[in-house]
Amino acid sequence: QVQLVESGGGLVQAGGSLRLSCAASGNIFRINDMSWYRQAPGKQRELVAVIARAATTHYADSVAGRFTISRDNAKNTVYLQMNSLKPEDTAVYYCNADVLDRQFKQYDAWGQGTQVTVSS
């Protein structure tokens, strides 16, 4: 079993910054892609950013140029630096990892979510 623990959410004014972290632990052989998703009230969960193990990245159009995803493979940790935050960035942010465990079983693991609230 793999656990993902997120941290770094909170309340910030528009234009401010936050940095989210997500640490994976447990039965891990290798983590491939790591991603951040978000879900605002009344909306579907959407992909924010994804980073491959080799560090190639992809961003949603709505956050490109403002958010930066990074990872530390030695620590099985992914980060999301969020700058120039807007009220429409308010959501619960979820970490996702494409995990290969020590039994070579591959599956998606999810964190519990961390709330980000941006006030205008």
Topology record:
Layout: E1 2-7, E2 10-13, E3 18-26, E4 30-39, E5 46-51, E6 57-59, E7 67-72, E8 77-82, E9 91-100, E10 106-110, E11 114-119
Commentary on this structure:
The chain is an all-beta fold. The chain is built from no helices and eleven strands. The protein has strands at residues 2-7, 10-13, 18-26, 30-39, 46-51, 57-59, 67-72, 77-82, 91-100, 106-110, 114-119. The mean pLDDT is 97.
What would the keywords be for this entry?
0% helix, 120 residues, mainly beta, 59% strand, four-stranded antiparallel beta sheet, single chain
Short synopsis of the structure:
This protein is 0% helix and 59% strand. With 120 residues, the protein is mainly β. The protein starts with a strand and ends with a strand.
The radius of gyration computed from the alpha-carbon positions, rounded to a whole number of angstroms, is: 14 Å
One letter per element, helices H and strands E, the order comes to EEEEEEEEEEE
The number of helical segments is 0
Helix content: under 10%
N-end to C-end Cα span: 40 Å
Structural class: mainly beta
Give a quick account of the main beta sheet: strands, pairing sense, barrel closure: 7 strands, mixed
Q: What is the residue-averaged pLDDT?
A: 97
